[in-house]
Amino acid sequence: MSGRTVIRGGLVITASDELHADVLIEDGRVAALAASGTTAAEAWTAEHTIDATGKFVIPGGVDAHTHMELPFGGTFASDTFETGTRAAAWGGTTTIVDFAVQSVGHTLREGLDAWHAKAEGNCAIDYGFHMIVSDVNQDTLKEMDLLVQEGVTSFKQFMAYPGVFYSDDGQILRAMQRSAENGGLIMMHAENGIAIDVLVEQALARGETDPRYHGEVRKALLEAEATHRAIKLAQVAGAPLYVVHVSAMEAVAELARARDEGLPVFGETCPQYLFLSTDNLAEPDFEGSKYVCSTPLRPREHQAKLWQGLRTNDLQVVSTDHCPFCFVGQKELGRGDFSKIPNGLPGVENRMDLLHQAVVDGHISRRRWIEIACATPARMFGMYPKKGTIAPGADADIVIYDPHAEQVMSVETHHMNVDYSAYEGKRTTGRVETVLSRGVPVITEREYTGHAGHGVYTPRSTCQYLN
Predict the structure, then answer these.
(1) Chain CA centroid to CA 334, Å
(2) In this predicted model, what pLDDT tens digit does every residue of 98-117 receive, in sequence order?
(3) Would you say 461 and 382 are in contact if contact means Cβ atoms under 8 Å apart?
(4) ∠ at Cα 251 (247, 256), nearest 5°?
């Protein structure tokens, strides 16, 4: 679908503005906006017209934390880049940033090449990569500089998962020092994995094997302690820090304190921490295993502090940490031992709708919805204003969103390649109607019209909050 498209009559919502405007798209990019009904807008001619009367016209979502095809716990995340990006499009997300993995004993380049091979030609929407750094040594540190130059500008480290992804404080400090020099951003999984492993061993020895104990051993205080430690290490290194999947109010407090001190520290949370809780982990008949992820779901009282953090900008981004494992055959690997349940939840298709429900419920404003789901992740990871907004020159990644349509989330109707929904039966108001990726319709009035291979790799500049 080349040439010109005009979207008429909708309410255009970006992080900064709401206006009744028509949008002109030319050659995959936004060419112009003009107030609906004005002479300028009426003069536009186009091969394709989309009527958005009564609808929102919003930027495509940017999900900066996904794990397609991730090997974990003796199995693989059940969404491929093809199924996962198609589901993302159904949910109004038009860009993902996935995680390439360096295995211990291998180079960053080997990991990155492997992920390029998985994704290339298979994605329905555009994608970029972060790099998981599992093996910090002199060669790895040099490679970090090269990756930043070619558009992989963020590096994830783990204070959790000893023996798999874990880095000790010395390795973390070295990587942070390097990122302070090369402009990269360290993303941190902040949990004290060494202490957690002790608590896991003790719980299993007591016969506490059910999924709910996953949440009990991964204590909020150990998330807060690791968050504090990551902040101090970043401060020593003179480096910025982005803490992923913040779930505990005590960790939010650490981030807020650091930001009050003027430190370049950022925090992300995920829909599961805003809408689910330890009540789900405690569901009987091993159903709780569906909700095992790390950081874990917390008691419900943590939700209010997470929403508050999003309103006060102590948390800046909502990503999904989409890492689905089927209940049958995958989650079931942990029957009789919660520590063997693959960690991860499906959610790439649900994020935009859940956050719109948060608007309906009064937790956040409409513009803040777009800010935390589109604009800020694009800025944080060096893709703005190409992604994350509707403005002249931006990629025409645009969603026509019906704010009044009602839906019930269910495994029966979702498009993620997983045999359950984490939000089964949840009623929400608001639904994606049409999705354009670089001007090309991927979802057209609730029909999938995209194809694998439309999505292209997107190199990124460095974090745009540090310039």
Answers:
(1) 26
(2) 999 999 999 999 999 999 99
(3) yes
(4) 120
